[in-house]
Design brief:
The complex is a heterodimer.
Chain A lengths: L6 E5 L5 H25 L4 H9 L9 H27 L7 H19 L5 H30 L3 H21 L28 E3 L6 E3 H19 L1 H11 L1 H6 L4 H27 L10 H11 L4 H24 L5 H23 E5 L2 H4 L1
Antiparallel strand pairs in A: 1-4, 2-3
Chain B lengths: L1 H21 L12 E4 L10 H15 L4 H4 E4 L6 H13 L4 E4 L5 H8 L8 E5 L9 E6 L1 H19 L3 E6 L6 H17 L4 E6 L6 H15 L3 E5 L4 H8 L3 E3 L17 E3 L1 H14 L4 H4 L3 E3 L6 E3 L10 H14 L9 E4 L5 E4 L16 H7 L7 E3 L1
Parallel strand pairs in B: 1-2, 1-3, 3-4, 4-5, 5-11, 6-7, 6-8, 7-15, 8-9
Antiparallel strand pairs in B: 10-12, 13-14
The chains are: A mainly alpha, B alpha/beta.
Chain lengths: 373, 390
C-alpha cells in the first residue's frame, strides 16, 4: 500500500483581513510569551524587559531624543530597501542582492564625499552623492538583469554572489594602505575609513522639541514610498511590472517589451537600494565594512510580510526596527541578557508571524479514507 | 478561534504570575556609579578578546565593591560601524553611565564624536587600542605587550639552544599592516636573539585576528616548510599550540595560559591583565570624574603596572629560564632598560646579562633609528633582523 500523508495542505478561499491581523497578533504574543519564559529563566523580569523594549528605553532616559535619532538612522535604510525590493519581487525577479547594491551605493556616495566634499557646498554635494549612489547601486543590479534577459541566467545566484564582490571591494578600500587610497584617514596609522567633510553630512532639520533634529533622509524616503505606491497603482509602467510578474508570456502577447521592462525595473529597484546606502553613509559621516546592518536580508522579510504592499511595508519596517532597536536597548540594562537573546527573540517573532501567515492562506485538511484508497 | 484566544490569554496570565513571583524588584543604584561597556562580540563568550575585557571589567568592579548586576551596562555584538556604535553610546549614556569603555579599534570615530558632544561632557569615554583623546573626558588605553613578547622570546631562545633547532615559527594575525603586530614580532625576535644570535623567526601571516582553521594551517605550514622547533603566535585561538603538541615541538601561546590545551608543548604566553587598567579607571571616576584626564589620562601600562605579564612557565621551559626571565623583567619594571630603547641585551645561559649599545637593525639592513612609544603603537612598519616573513 502506498504511504499517504495524514494531512494535506489546502488553499483557503476566504482570506479576511480581520483574521490575518488577529493571527499575526496572536503569533507575536506566542513568541513574546516564549521569550518571557526564557527571560524568567535568566532571572529577568519579562515585564520590565518588554517595557524597555517597546518604549525603546525612552522612559527614564536622560537623552531620549538621541534614541529617536538613532532609530531614524536605522529605520530609513530598511524602509527604502524593503520598498525597492518589493518592486523586483512584484515582477518575480528574486533580487537577494540588496546587501551588495546598498554597499555599492555607499561606495559611490563615499567617492563623491571624499573627492569633492571639500570643494563644493552641501546643497550641491548631497544631491550629487544621492545621484551617484543610486547610479552605482542601479547599475550593479541592472547588470544581473541584463544577464538574465540576454542569457537567461539565474538572478538569485548572481545577486547573491555580487553581494560578496561588493563587500570585499569595500574591505579592500578599507584595509589597503596606500597613497592612492583616498578612502582612508590620513592621521591613523592603522587603516581606518576617513570621516566625511562637513558638507557631505546629511542635513538635520531642527525641530521644536529643542535638541531633537529630524534627519532629512527620512522625509525623502517617505516621499519615495508615496511615489512608488502611486507608480505601481496608477501608471502604465507600474502596471507592466505586475503583468510581467504574473506571466511574461501574456505580457509579450500584449505587445510589451518584457526584457526592457525587467532591466528598467531592476535598475530602479537597485538604484533605490543604492540611494539607501548613500543616505546611510551621509548620516553616519563615514563608511564601514559592517554598515549594511543586514538590511538587504531584513528587507526581504519585510517585503514579504507586507505582501509587497507599499503602505504595509512602511508599517512592517517600522515595527521591525522597533523590535531590533528596542531589543538591543533593553538588553543593555540586564547583565545576563546579551544581544544574542535580542536576535533570538526577533527570530522567534518573525518565524511565528510567517507561520501565522501560512495558516491564514492555507489550511491543513485530514486526508480522508477514500483518498488513501 | 475564540477558544484559541482564551487559551492563550490564560497561558499569558499564568506566565505573568510566575514571572512576577520570581522577578526581583526594580534595580536600585546604590554605589552612585554606573559603568558602560561596548563589546565587539558576545559578553557571554568563554574565550577570546571580548572575554578578556569582560573578565577584566567584572574583576575590577568586584574589587571595588561594585555590583556588576546593577552597575554594569553592556551593549555587545556591536560591529565597527559608526551608526551602530553611536546608538550603543546613546543607549548607555541615556541609562546614566558615568564611564563608557569601547574595546575595539573601529569604535574610535564614534567615541571621538560622542566625547565632543555637550550633553555627554560629564561622561568619561575610554577607548582601547586607539590613538585619539581630548583634555577632559576621552582617553585611550593600551599596554606594552611587546615587553611580555620579549620575555617569551628569551624563553624561546633558551629552548632553541636546548633543542639545538635555530628555526622558530610565528603565526601572526598580521605583520606590517599593524604596528601592534609587527612590534610584537620584533620584540619577540629581539628576545630570541639576545640568547641565541643564530636563531631565525619565520612569520606566517593569516590576515585575520582569529580563525581556528587558518591558525592551524599556518602553524603546520611553518613546521613543514622550515622544520621549526617552536611555534609562537599572535592570534586568538590555541590551535597553533595544539599543532605544536601534535608535532612534538614547543610553543608560546597568547592571551591566556594555553598549557591546558597543549600540556607537552606550551611554555608560556604573553597575557593582559585588563582588570589593572579597569580598576584604575573606574576608581578614578568614583573619586572625581573631572580630573580623570590628569589622574589616569592616556594609559600605556606594562610589566611595571602588572597590566602586562607572561603566564606561569610550564615544565616544558628550558633549565634556568625562570631565573633569567626574572632578571630581565626586573630591568624593564625598574625602567632601567626597555626593549626598543636602543640598547640590546646579551644573555648567556648561565644568567649573566650584558647591555650592548647597538641600534636595532631592520631586516633590510638599515638602521631602525629612534623607536619611541608613538612608533611602537602607531607607525612601526618594519621587521628587525632575524625575521623572515613571507
Amino acid at each position: 500500500m502506498k504511504r499517504q500523508n495524514y494531512f494535506h495542505v489546502v488553499k483557503r478561499d476566504d482570506v479576511r483581513l480581520k483574521r490575518i491581523i488577529l493571527s499575526y497578533l496572536l503569533a507575536v504574543l506566542i513568541a513574546i510569551i516564549i521569550g518571557g519564559i526564557l527571560l524568567s529563566i535568566q532571572n529577568v523580569n519579562p515585564f520590565s524587559y518588554y517595557k524597555d523594549m517597546f518604549s525603546l528605553g525612552l522612559i527614564g532616559n536622560k537623552f531620549g531624543y538621541k534614541q529617536v535619532e538613532a532609530f531614524i538612522k536605522v529605520f530609513t535604510p530598511l524602509l527604502l530597501t524593503s520598498v525597492a525590493l518589493s518592486l523586483a519581487f512584484k515582477m518575480r525577479f528574486w533580487n537577494i542582492g540588496g546587501e551588495g547594491q546598498f554597499i555599492m551605493g555607499a561606495i559611490g556616495a563615499g567617492i563623491v564625499a571624499y573627492l569633492l566634499g571639500d570643494s563644493l557646498p552641501s546643497l550641491i554635494i548631497l544631491p550629487l552623492m544621492a545621484l551617484v549612489g543610486a547610479l552605482f547601486g542601479g547599475l550593479y543590479g541592472a547588470f544581473v538583469a541584463v544577464l538574465k534577459v540576454k542569457y537567461n541566467t539565474n538572478e538569485t545566484l548572481l545577486t547573491l554572489m555580487m553581494n560578496y564582490i561588493a563587500l570585499y571591494l569595500l574591505k579592500f578600500f578599507g584595509e589597503t594602505s596606500g597613497e592612492w587610497n583616498f578612502f582612508l584617514s590620513t592621521d591613523s596609522s592603522r587603516p581606518l575609513f576617513a570621516s566625511f567633510p562637513e558638507s557631505a553630512l546629511m542635513i538635520e532639520i531642527p525641530t521644536f522639541f529643542g535638541y531633537f533634529s529630524l534627519n532629512l533622509s527620512l522625509v525623502i524616503a517617505l516621499l519615495i514610498c508615496v511615489a512608488i505606491w502611486w507608480y505601481l497603482k496608477y501608471t502604465k509602467r507600474g502596471y507592466e511590472i505586475a503583468v510581467v510578474g504574473d506571466s511574461p508570456n501574456s505580457a509579450k502577447y500584449a505587445g510589451m517589451k518584457v526584457s526592457k521592462i525587467v532591466v528598467r525595473t531592476i535598475f530602479l529597484s537597485a538604484a533605490l537600494i543604492g540611494l539607501a546606502g548613500a543616505f546611510y553613509v551621509s548620516s553616519a559621516g563615514t563608511l564601514s565594512t559592517s554598515m549594511t546592518n543586514s538590511v538587504g536580508w531584513t528587507g526581504i522579510v519585510v517585503a514579504w510580510l507586507a505582501k509587497l504592499n507599499t503602505i504595509a511595508i512602511t508599517v512592517v519596517s517600522l515595527l521591525i526596527t522597533v523590535l531590533q532597536h528596542g531589543c538591543s536597548v533593553a538588553s543593555a540594562s540586564y547583565a545576563t541578557v546579551d544581544a544574542n537573546f535580542a536576535n533570538l527573540l526577533q527570530g522567534m517573532i518573525l518565524f511565528a508571524v510567517l507561520t501565522a501567515d501560512f495558516f491564514t492562506r492555507f489550511k491543513l485538511v485530514k486526508t480522508s479514507k477514500q483518498e488513501v484508497e | 478561534m475564540k477558544k484559541l484566544v482564551t487559551l492563550f490569554l490564560a497561558i499569558t496570565m499564568m506566565v505573568t504570575c510566575t514571572a512576577c513571583s520570581t522577578s526581583e524588584s526594580e534595580e536600585e543604584d546604590t554605589s552612585g556609579i554606573t559603568v558602560g561597556a561596548i563589546y565587539i562580540t558576545s559578553q557571554n563568550d568563554t574565550s577570546g578578546y571580548t572575554y578578556q575585557h569582560h573578565t577584566g571589567i567584572v574583576t575590577a568592579m568586584e574589587n571595588l565593591g561594585l555590583d556588576t548586576e546593577t552597575d554594569l551596562l553592556i551593549v555587545d555584538n556591536v560591529e565597527e560601524d559608526d551608526t551602530q556604535v553611536s546608538a550603543a553610546i546613546d543607549t548607555l549614556a541615556g541609562q546614566g553611565c558615568d564611564i563608557i569603555f569601547g574595546i575595539s579599534f573601529g569604535y574610535i570615530t564614534a567615541f571621538d564624536t560622542a566625547a565632543a558632544q555637550e550633553e555627554y561632557s560629564d561622561i568619561i569615554f575610554s577607548h582601547a587600542t586607539g590613538y585619539l583623546s581630548n583634555d577632559t573626558n576621552f582617553n585611550n588605553y593600551f599596554g606594552r605587550i611587546y615587553q611580555a613578547r620579549y620575555l617569551a622570546g628569551v624563553a624561546a631562545g633558551l629552548k632553541s639552544l636546548e633543542t639545538g633547532n635555530d628555526a622558530i615559527g610565528y603565526v601572526a594575525a598580521y605583520n606590517l599592516e599593524y604596528a601592534e603586530t609587527c612590534s610584537g614580532i620584533n620584540a619577540f625576535t629581539l628576545g630570541v636573539q639576545s640568547v641565541n644570535a643564530n636563531a631565525t623567526v619565520y612569520v606566517n601571516e593569516i590576515s585575520s585576528w582569529g580563525d581556528e582553521t587558518l591558525e592551524r594551517q599556518a602553524a603546520q605550514a611553518l613546521i613543514d616548510t622550515y622544520d621549526v622547533g617552536i611555534i609562537a603566535q599572535h592570534s586568538d585561538s590555541a590551535q597553533p599550540q595544539m599543532v605544536a603538541e601534535e608535532n612534538g615541538i614547543y610553543g608560546f601561546g597568547y592571551n591566556s595560559d594555553m598549557t591546558e590545551q597543549a600540556p607537552d608543548a606550551h611554555i608560556c604566553a604573553p597575557i593582559w591583565n585588563w582588570d589593572i587598567y579597569y580598576e584604575a579607571a573606574i576608581s578614578a571616576v568614583m573619586e572625581d570624574p573631572t580630573t580623570f584626564m590628569t589622574t589616569v589620562g592616556n594609559y600605556y601600562g606594562g610589566l611595571a603596572e602588572g597590566f602586562i605579564d607572561i603566564s606561569e612557565l610550564s615544565d616544558n621551559a628550558a633549565e634556568g629560564t625562570a631565573e633569567i626571565l626574572e632578571e630581565v623583567s626586573a630591568l624593564m619594571e625598574s625602567g632601567e632598560w626597555d626593549v626598543f630603547s636602543g640598547v640590546s641585551l646579551e644573555i648567556s645561559t648561565d644568567g649573566t646579562i650584558t647591555q650592548v649599545e647597538e641600534p636595532v637593525m631592520k631586516n633590510d639592513g638599515t638602521e631602525a633609528g629612534v623607536i619611541d612609544d608613538s612608533v611602537i603603537t602607531g607607525t612601526m612598519d618594519f621587521n628587525v633582523e632575524g625575521v623572515v616573513a613571507q
